[in-house]
Design a protein that fits this description.
With 691 residues, this protein is of the alpha/beta class. Among the domains are: 85-200, 3-Layer(aba) Sandwich (Dna Topoisomerase Vi A Subunit, Chain: A, domain 2), CATH 3.40.1360; 320-472, no CATH class; 475-582, no CATH class; 592-688, no CATH class. The protein contains 22 helices and 31 strands. It has a six-stranded mixed β-sheet, with helices on both faces.
C-alpha cells in the first residue's frame, strides 16, 4: 500500500488526511483548531490524532507506507498581510528616478532601497552600463544590517543580463539569500517584479523555520517521506525549493481546496464554495482545475507575479459576527469572532454570564447584547489618558472572558459603547466573542460539538431586542446568511464575462451590483423560502429568475448546512462530497508537480527588414539568423529548463507539453500584409513521483 499524508492549515481549522494512492480514497482524517502564530501546534495535534487511530497504533507499517507528505499553508499569505518577515535590501538597476518611490516601495518599513545604473531597452540593448563599483559598495555597506537581497533590473524581460550579473556578484560577496525578479516572471511590469522579489526575500527566514519545524514533527513520528508544499496555482514543489521561493505558496490553501473538491466530487466543471470558519472562497472549475489569475495574485494590496488560482474571497464563514445595527437590520461579517458555543465550552463562566444577561433584561441598541471580550496576550500600549483605562480593562479580563455588560459594571463605566477597545482588538491583545453562524447551527441542532445552551442564550438575547420569538429570530438570521452567500456567488458568476458595450471597470461593477440586487429582489430580504425554492418577498414588484447550470460543489466544515438553500435559490445541483470537511488536505496530497517556462522570440528590424531573431529566456538572450532555427533552439532550451525546474520541484519523471504562437499585426486591410512581431513559447513540465 502507498499512502499520502495531506495537511492543510486553514484560517480556522488545520486538517489532515491519509490517502490510499492506489485506491484513491481517504482512509483516515483529523481536524484541529489552527494555532496562531505557531501553525506547527495545530499540525502536531492533527498528526497526534491520526497517530491515535487504529491504523497507526496497531503497527508501524502504516508509517513506512507513507510515501509522500504535502502541506498547504497560510504562512506566506498571513505574513504578507500582517507585515512579518525579514529586512530586505532592494537593488534596483536602471529604474527611472522616483519610479519606485512614487509607488511607495521605499515607504515599506522592511525595505532598504538602493538604485544602480544599468538596464536594457525593449530591443534588449544595454541602456546604460552596469555600475558594478556602486553595487559592490552597497553590498559592503548593507551586509551587516539586512537579512536578504532582492535584485530587479529595468528591461530584464528583454535582456536579464544585468540582473544576472548582480545576482552572481551578491553570491560571491555575501552568504545572505539573494532573490531575482526575473526568476518569477518575464512579463512587463517592473513594480510587480520588484514587489514579488521583495516579498519572496522577506519570507525566507519565516519559511525556513516553518519547514524545519514540520520536518522535525514528521521525523519525531517516524514519517520519513519527502515533504512537498502546495503553491498558489495548486501544484506541488518540494520543501527545499519552497524555502527558496516561499512567495509561490501564497494562496496555496484555497488552491488545494478546489483540487480536493474536484477529486472528491468527480465534477470536471462546477462552482466550488469552500465555506470555512473565517471566509468563503469561491472559484469556477474548468476541466478539473480553477482558472489561474492572468495578472498575478494580489496580496497585502500589492499585485505580484505569482501564479495563483482566481479566487473570490468573502468575509463570511462559521465565525462571522452576526450583528444588529441601529435599525435592527442584520449584518453578517466580515469581522470574525469566537462563537458563543465554543467559548462557553472552553470557559464555563461564559454560560453563567449569558444567564445573568437574560435575567437582567438588558437590551442595548449601540452594542451587541451577547458580545464578550477576552484577553489574549500582553502588548505595549501607548497613549495618555487611555493608558490607565486600558490597563484596568486588561486586568479585569485576565481572569477570563467578560460580557460587555459585566465589564462595564466592573469598570464602573456608564455604558459599553464608551469602552474604546478598537486598538486593542486590532492589535490582537483582545478578541471578541459573539453570535455567529456556528451558534445558529448549534441552535438548529445541525452541529452540536460545543455548548448548545450558550448558542440558544445568545439568540434569545437577540430575539428580545427584535421583539420576536426565538424561532423567528433563527429564521431571519439564517435568511440573512443565505442571502449573503447567494449575493457573493452571483457576483462571481456575473464577473466571469464582460458585459457588452461596457468598457469601464467601475461601470461593470455597478451593473453587476444592480443585477445581484434584482436577483435577490432589490434590498428586501426574502420572507419565506419554501421546499420548492420559491421565494416570497414583501412588496414584491419584480425580480430576475436565475438558473445556474453548473453544479455547486460545497466543501468545508459548514458546507452541509449552508450549500443546500443556496443551491435551491439558484436552481442548481448541490454537491457535497464525502470528506468535504477535509477537502483542502485531500487537495494538497493529490496535487501534481507542474513547472512552466516562458520564452519569447523577438525580431530585430533594420531598414531592409529583419536583421536577426533574438531568443529571450530566463537564462539570457541569443541571436539567430532565421526564425526556424530560433524557434527550434527556443523549444529545446525550454524543454531542458522545464525538466530541470520540475525535477528541482521534486519530480522523478517529467512529461513535456509545448505551446507556441506567433504575434503579428496587419498593416493594411486591403492587402492583408502582416508584420511579424515575435513568437511566444510556453513549455510545461508535468512531473510525477515514483510510488
Amino acid at each position: 500500500m502507498s499512502l499520502g499524508l495531506g495537511i492543510d492549515t486553514g484560517g480556522t481549522y488545520t486538517d489532515a488526511v491519509l490517502l490510499d494512492f492506489e485506491m484513491k480514497r481517504v482512509i483516515s482524517k483529523a481536524k484541529a483548531l489552527t494555532t496562531y502564530p505557531n501553525l506547527e501546534m495545530g499540525i502536531a495535534e492533527v498528526l497526534e490524532t491520526l497517530e491515535n487511530n487504529t491504523l497507526l497504533t496497531a503497527t508501524n507499517s502504516a508509517k513506512s507506507e507513507i510515501t509522500l507528505v504535502a502541506i498547504s499553508t497560510t504562512l506566506a499569505t498571513n505574513a504578507m498581510v500582517e507585515g512579518k518577515g525579514g529586512h530586505v535590501c532592494l537593488l534596483a538597476i536602471g529604474y527611472l528616478p522616483d519610479l519606485l518611490e512614487e509607488r511607495g516601495v521605499d515607504k515599506q518599513p522592511f525595505v532598504e532601497l538602493h538604485h544602480i545604473a544599468g538596464g536594457h531597452n525593449i530591443d534588449g540593448d544595454e541602456k546604460y552600463p552596469l555600475d558594478l563599483v556602486a553595487a559592490e559598495h552597497i553590498i559592503e555597506e548593507t551586509t551587516g544590517r539586512v537579512d536578504a537581497y532582492a535584485v530587479v533590473a529595468l528591461g530584464s524581460p528583454f535582456n536579464p543580463g544585468h540582473e544576472i550579473q548582480i545576482v552572481e556578484l551578491l553570491k560571491e560577496k555575501t552568504d545572505l539569500p539573494v532573490v531575482s525578479g526575473i526568476e518569477f516572471s518575464r512579463e512587463l511590469g517592473s513594480i510587480k517584479r520588484a514587489m514579488t522579489a521583495i516579498f519572496n526575500a522577506r519570507l525566507l527566514p519565516l519559511t525556513q523555520q516553518f519547514i524545519t519545524t514540520i520536518q522535525g514533527l514528521l521525523s519525531k513520528r517516524g514519517v520519513v517521506a519527502p515533504l512537498m508544499i502546495v503553491k498558489g496555482d495548486g501544484h506541488l514543489m518540494r520543501a527545499e525549493l519552497a524555502v527558496e521561493r516561499p512567495i509561490e505558496t501564497v494562496l496555496s490553501g484555497p488552491a488545494a481546496s478546489f483540487l480536493g473538491a474536484h477529486h472528491l466530487s468527480g465534477c470536471e466543471d462546477g462552482i466550488v464554495l469552500d465555506i470555512g470558519g473565517t471566509t468563503t472562497d469561491i472559484a469556477v472549475l474548468k476541466d478539473g482545475s480553477p482558472r489561474i489569475n492572468p495578472q498575478g495574485a494580489v496580496v497585502a494590496g500589492w499585485r505580484t507575479c505569482v501564479r495563483a488560482a482566481e479566487i473570490h474571497t468573502s468575509g463570511i464563514g462559521g465565525d462571522s459576527h452576526l450583528r444588529l445595527d441601529h435599525y435592527n437590520e442584520i449584518t453578517v461579517g466580515p469581522q470574525r469572532v469566537i462563537p458563543l458555543a465554543f467559548a462557553a465550552n472552553q470557559y464555563p463562566s461564559v454560560l453563567t454570564q449569558l444567564g445573568e444577561l437574560e435575567a437582567s433584561g438588558w437590551t442595548p441598541k449601540l452594542v451587541q447584547s451577547s458580545d464578550f471580550l477576552m484577553y489574549r496576550g500582553d502588548i505595549r500600549i501607548g497613549g495618555k489618558s487611555s493608558l490607565k483605562a486600558s490597563n484596568n480593562l486588561i486586568e479585569k479580563l485576565k481572569s477570563g472572558p467578560l460580557s460587555l455588560w459585566h465589564l462595564t459594571r466592573e469598570l464602573e463605566v456608564t455604558a459599553p459603547s464608551l469602552l474604546d477597545t478598537t486598538m486593542l482588538e486590532s492589535r490582537g491583545s483582545l478578541v471578541r466573542i459573539g453570535l455567529t453562524p456556528t451558534d445558529l447551527l448549534h441552535a438548529q441542532g445541525i452541529f452540536t460539538d460545543w455548548s448548545v445552551e450558550a448558542a440558544l442564550c445568545g439568540i434569545r438575547l437577540y430575539a428580545r431586542r427584535l421583539g420576536i420569538s426565538v424561532e423567528e429570530t433563527i429564521s431571519i438570521l439564517r435568511t440573512a446568511i443565505d442571502k449573503k452567500v447567494v449575493a457573493e456567488l452571483t457576483t462571481v458568476l456575473l464577473s466571469q464575462d464582460e458585459i457588452p458595450s461596457v468598457s469601464k471597470e467601475k461601470d461593470q461593477k455597478e451593473i453587476q451590483d444592480f443585477l445581484v440586487k434584482q436577483i435577490l429582489n432589490g434590498t428586501k430580504s426574502p420572507e419565506v423560502i419554501d421546499e420548492k425554492g420559491v421565494v416570497t418577498y414583501a412588496d414584491n414588484s419584480w425580480s430576475i429568475d436565475v438558473k445556474v447550470h453548473l453544479p455547486l460543489i460545497g466543501i468545508g466544515a459548514s458546507a452541509q448546512a449552508y450549500l443546500p438553500p443556496v443551491a435551491t435559490v439558484l436552481q442548481a445541483e448541490g454537491v457535497i462530497p464525502e470528506h468535504a470537511e477535509v477537502a483542502n488536505a485531500v487537495g494538497a496530497i493529490i496535487s501534481r508537480i507542474v513547472e512552466t517556462v516562458e520564452i519569447d522570440i523577438h525580431p530585430v528590424y533594420n531598414v531592409t527588414g529583419i536583421d536577426r531573431y533574438e531568443v529571450r529566456s530566463p537564462v539570457g538572450t541569443r541571436a539567430f539568423d532565421s526564425q526556424e532555427s530560433a524557434v527550434q533552439y527556443a523549444i529545446e532550451q525550454g524543454k531542458g529548463l522545464a525538466i530541470e525546474k520540475a525535477k528541482r520541484a521534486g519530480a522523478d519523471h517529467v512529461e513535456i507539453e509545448v505551446k507556441s504562437g506567433n504575434q503579428e499585426v496587419t498593416t493594411s486591410s486591403d492587402t492583408g500584409e502582416q508584420i511579424y512581431l515575435g513568437t511566444h513559447i510556453q513549455v510545461t513540465g508535468v512531473g510525477k513521483r515514483e510510488g
